[in-house]
Amino acid sequence: MKKILVSLVAVVAIVAAGLWQFQGSAQTAPDVTFTSLSGEKITMRDLRGKVVLVKFWATSCTTCIAQMPGNIARYKQLSPQGFDTIAVAMQYDPPNYVKNYADTRKLPFPVVIDAQGELAKAFGDVKLTPTAFLIDKQGHIIKRYLGNYDETAFLKTVKQALAS
Fold it and tell me: Which of 97, 120, 136, 150 could form a disulfide with 126 if both were Cys (CB 3.0 to 4.6 A apart)?
């Protein structure tokens, strides 16, 4: 009886995990407005028709900083095909640090400061960096990334989304 119960619990856990993953992949990105450092307002609706990486980061996050050259290269490579990136600096990040980093690194994509923490809340109360959301052309979240991720798998997912 105990083996049956353990097996049943394991099956329920696997099904629940699968449903959670499926539910997350069909979730629509929140309808938010990003205001870039230059004052440009960008809504999620403005981004429809593009594949978008919304990346929450901080200048104090070593993994974020280590990933930034790859983000720049990927943006430059894929933006002509309809890929965009929005870099959202966390609420606790000093605005002058963010601006200095964006200016000195010549970040080619919009950089946003989430001064009130509203964007992080809208995307599921993001607390850890880096956290990124890959959004398809219809505005659905395809994948969530926390920390480091496999670059090859990421590019494959982006290219599939761009082709659809």
Answer: 120
